[in-house]
Write a structure and sequence with these properties.
The protein is of the alpha/beta class. It has 35 helices and 25 strands. A 7-stranded parallel beta sheet has the order 10-11-9-12-17-8-18, sandwiched between helices. It has a 7-stranded parallel beta sheet with strand order 21-22-20-23-24-19-25, with helices on both faces. A 5-stranded mixed beta sheet has the order 3-2-1-4-5, with helices on both faces. Helix 4 links the parallel strand 4 and strand 5. The chain is globular, with a radius of gyration of 31 Å. Its EC number is 3.1.-.-. This is 3'-5' exonuclease DinG.
Length: 935
């Protein structure tokens, strides 16, 4: 293969050439015979001013392009370079369409050769990357990208990326290349032309399959890797019982290890809890190093006693850290073989049988075909088959639902069992010393009829402050409009040509269905049509009830209100009637579909493979429909006073997307009975469990008595008095004394002044999205911070991790966050120097769960504020407080705008629960002076 590629990048005044936006820089890099052979770049005179945002993004100014050539002057050179070449760009349709407009405007026909898009190629060939932005890919691939958003630098890095991707393509087995070619016809770029050439080139050579791969039943898979095993535990090594022995252990993995007594204390506490055995709650401050502090004693106890210990986390982020960072360190430290495995719910794993069948299905959907191509590449790399490794689009996630691993009824081909990822994970888990899972899986195992996890009696629950929150949904129910609608549309009516249509076609071929007590196709179709109509009416009425209850109350784009079915009013009666109608229709449809499936299953030997595949999908859908019916019944027909039900609506969505939730008001009794009483030793670990040095609140929430547990509080090794200044502004109004608009105006002024003084590097935590939105709007409208990069959750777009990465990229950056940003955000070093907490994080009193818990506490003669609202807010405050100092060298300011922290009696609870730092009350001018001095 000796293709010529011209990799192009443009900088422009905007995104719309037809609205007058112009090119300000052009760059091209030529690749021939697998090498970069030529480069060309030029500034371009746009004959208009460069907008401030573009100037900030690119570094290109009006002065720099003032004497640059016009596009007409460089156009001939560009067209000469492009002769006989592939046009390549990162997001090719933008660069190509912009260039075409410019060429046509100066009298040329444009470019009509083949095109390649490195975004599309990277999505296919690097299916596990977090981001497909050029700068992110450059970092991941080890490329030097010193001037992002300047065309010459972007074009060169894109060219280097293309060469990496091409090398990867050429190394793929012929089988995979042919499958990719078959799927590539509907892509945005001309990858099909390129792959056809590549297949022809590969056919002229001897195709060697790499040693780590195998082709099994037509699909290239990565072989399971046998690790170099250390000897098994010989019973000689004892748990290190003094600091010297512990230090020697750590030095095997950390040559420059610094002793942390808190880490050693936690190791001892975990080992003692397992041996006694007893439950334990351990609060370990930031920087203690809690992961290794529980992994080492867990591993030693497990191998010595030949037991399995489960490690449960709340976030996949911590799971990944344990797997990829902490376990390799553990293996260095211990002289014997460390057997550890990650185990997730079955639907996390791919069904190779379903995927292989789906490759035969012709599909015109872009996302489906791209996802199939991603998975073909991923299967040559993955050892787990876990979908969390993949970066899938929303359309890709829909396709995943067709190929995820679950119980099968019609597809019973046992030939894939030897390669089945879920089966392999379960088998490894049976032999492992440590099983890493998440709270969701752990709790699913508690409520599941058949145990998923192997038998275990000792468990570490990391991020333990989330255990109650995670438990609620598992002992409750939820009903989501989009999910139910998607489920019913998968079945469809006969005219929709979905699963019901395919089902009736198979039945036609099997003979007269009337002889087998099955309802007529016409009746079946009528039933599905009526059920879909009633479902829409049911959810429409739910929305009306919620909106009526919320009328007159302020709020953002999400509406969240309690639903009290035991209240006797006209709306509830009508809604209950609608619920019953939808429930009985669903039950009838389920019964009719199950009868049809049972009839066909009796004739399974006469079915084709593609028929078995869609019937398998239908059987799964019918199982999901059964859950929908049970949920409707529980939420609206047979309700319980021990549960709280609420409705959430996204008001921005076209049909006001609605979800109904139902959870136990209190999960403590069920957790105690089903979990703590069943296990010998449960260790809950977290950085935030105590309120004013007491574990009382968390003990009550999880259903344990103090006498049943070891309670250990380990302080952070950081010197907060030297690393942190805590400021309470004196010249802000009391948040309770003014309107939200007035409060937002006041804090916006202070944020602007503080940002100018700190040069950004600021994280601002809100408790309300509406307040965040208004503050962001005022700051932007003021124009004072136009030279800052300002990122806001729910406004700037992207996930929490993406917003955090973008924030860290810019020197003068401000990040506004709510909800999830109060914890799990790790921004060490100088990237974050100032943390602002806008208001104390109390849950709104009309929040349904808060309201229900308060009512229960009141009925029992307690005080809802001191027993629930205050401790919950304190723990959340501690999580927010912990965002600033992540290492021993960090230094910064925490500014709490909410003066209630020093003006109310309960404010002391917040200050007494965080590391000891003197709270200083200052005016804005005094604060700015301190910032200049401190930072």
């Amino acid at each position: 293969m000796s293709n010529k590629y011209v990799v192009i990048d443009l900088e422009t005044t905007g995104n719309a050439p037809r609205k007058g936006d112009k090119m300000i820089q052009f760059a091209a890099v030529v690749i021939e015979d697998g090498k970069i052979t030529d480069q060309y770049s030029s500034l371009v005179q746009p004959n208009q001013s460069i907008p401030p945002f573009i100037e900030e993004l690119t570094g290109l100014t009006d002065d720099m392009v003032k004497n640059a050539p016009s596009f007409a002057e460089i156009a001939p050179k560009i067209l000469t370079m492009l002769e006989g070449a592939y046009f390549v760009a990162h997001n090719v349709l933008f660069d190509l369409s912009f260039l075409q407009e410019e060429l046509i405007e100066v009298g040329y026909n444009g470019f009509f050769g083949p095109i390649l898009d490195t975004v599309e190629l990277a999505r296919i060939l690097l299916p596990s990357e977090d981001s497909y932005k050029l700068s992110d890919l450059a970092i991941q691939q080890g490329l030097n990208h010193d001037r992002p958003h300047q065309a010459d630098s972007d074009a060169y890095v894109t060219a280097e990326l293309l060469l990496i991707l091409e090398r990867k393509l050429k190394q793929l087995p012929m089988q995979t290349l042919k499958q990719l070619h078959k799927l590539s016809g509907g892509l945005k770029s001309d990858l099909d032309i390129y792959l056809e050439e590549l297949v022809q080139w590969k056919e002229s050579k001897i195709d060697f399959i790499p040693a780590e791969l195998e082709v099994y039943q037509g699909i290239a898979l990565r072989k399971g890797q046998d690790e170099d095993k250390k000897p098994a535990f010989d019973g000689q090594m004892e748990f290190p019982d003094d600091s010297g022995k512990k230090e020697a252990l750590f030095r095997k993995a950390f040559p420059h290890f610094e002793v942390r007594e808190g880490q050693f204390l936690m190791m001892d506490s975990v080992y003692e809890a397992f041996n006694e055995p007893k439950h334990a709650l351990i609060e370990a401050g930031t920087g203690v190093g809690k992961s290794l502090a529980y992994l080492i004693p867990s591993m030693m106890y497990a191998v010595k006693n030949n037991e399995t210990i489960v490690i449960s986390t709340y976030t996949t982020q911590l799971q990944d850290q344990l797997l990829h960072k902490d376990l390799p360190l553990l293996k260095k430290m211990l002289p014997f073989s460390v057997e550890a495995v990650v185990l997730k719910g079955r639907s996390h794993y791919i069904s190779l049988q379903k995927f292989a069948q789906s490759l035969n299905d012709m599909d015109e959907n872009y996302d489906t075909n791209l996802t199939k191509m991603q998975i073909l590449i991923w299967l040559t790399e993955t050892e787990t088959g876990d979908m969390d490794e993949l970066n899938l689009s929303s359309g890709g996630l829909i396709y995943w639902n067709h190929i995820k691993n679950d119980e099968t009824v019609f597809l019973q081909n046992k030939s894939w069992i030897s390669r089945d990822f879920y089966y392999k994970a379960r088998t490894l888990a049976q032999k492992a010393h440590l099983i890493i899972t998440n709270h969701s899986m752990l709790l699913t195992d508690l409520v599941h009829d058949h145990s998923i996890l192997p038998s275990y009696s000792h468990v570490i629950v990391d991020e333990g402050h989330h255990f109650v929150k995670a438990a609620g949904p598992h002992f409750g129910r939820s009903l989501d409009y989009l999910n139910v609608r998607l489920l019913l549309s998968q079945i469809g009516g006969v005219e929709h040509r979905q699963l019901l249509y395919k089902l009736e076609k198979v039945l036609e071929e099997k003979g007269d269905i009337n002889q087998h007590s099955l309802i007529h196709s016409f009746e079946m179709n009528e039933l599905m049509t009526e059920m879909l109509f009633e479902m829409d009416e049911f959810f429409r009425l739910i929305g009306q009830v919620a909106k009526k209850q919320k009328k007159g109350k302020s709020g953002g784009n999400r509406l969240k209100v309690g639903f009290y079915s035991n209240e006797s009013n006209e709306e509830n009666k009508v809604l209950q009637g609608k619920a019953e109608r939808f429930y009985f229709l669903t039950a009838d449809a389920m019964k009719a579909l199950e009868a049809r499936l049972n009839y066909i299953h009796d004739n399974i030997n006469s079915l084709e493979n593609h028929e078995k595949a869609f019937l398998e999908e239908l059987a799964t859908v019918v199982g999901d429909l059964k859950k929908v019916a049970a949920t409707v019944k529980e939420l609206f027909i047979t309700t319980s006073d021990e549960h709280v039900t609420w409705i959430e609506i996204d008001l921005r969505a076209m049909q006001n997307v609605t979800t109904v939730y139902c959870e136990p008001i209190n999960v403590s009794n069920v957790l105690n009975a089903r979990f703590f009483q069943q296990k010998s030793s449960v260790v809950l670990a977290s950085a935030t469990m105590t309120v004013k040095d007491s574990f009382s609140y968390i003990l009550k929430e999880i259903g344990l008595e103090e006498a049943d547990c070891k309670l250990i509080k380990i302080e952070s090794p950081f010197d907060y008095e030297k690393q942190v200044k805590l400021i309470i502004p004196e010249d802000l109004p009391d948040i309770k004394a003014v309107s939200m608009e007035e409060y937002v105006a006041s804090i916006s002024e202070q944020i602007i002044s503080i940002a100018e003084s700190t040069k950004g590097r600021m994280l601002i935590l809100f408790t309300s999205y509406e307040m965040l939105r208004q503050t962001h709007q005022l700051i932007k409208e003021s124009g004072f911070l136009d030279d800052f990069a300002i990122f806001a959750q729910g406004i700037s777009g992207g996930s929490r991790s993406r917003l955090t990465r973008n924030f860290q990229r810019f020197e003068k950056a401000i990040l506004l966050g709510t909800s999830s940003f109060w914890e799990g955000v790790d921004i060490p070093g100088e990237d974050l120097s100032c943390l602002i907490i806008v208001r104390l994080p109390f849950s709104p009193p009309d929040e349904p769960m808060t309201e229900a818990k308060a009512k229960k506490i009141k009925e029992a003669g307690g005080n809802p504020f001191s027993e629930f609202s205050l401790p919950e807010a304190v723990i959340r405050f501690k999580q927010g407080f912990g965002r600033l100092i992540r290492t021993k060298s960090d230094k910064g300011l925490i500014i709490v705008f909410d003066r209630r922290i020093v003006t109310t009696s309960y404010g002391k609870a917040f200050l007494q629960s965080v590391p000891s730092v003197k709270a200083e009350r200052k005016t804005i001018n005094e604060t700015l002076d301190l910032i200049d001095e401190w930072l």
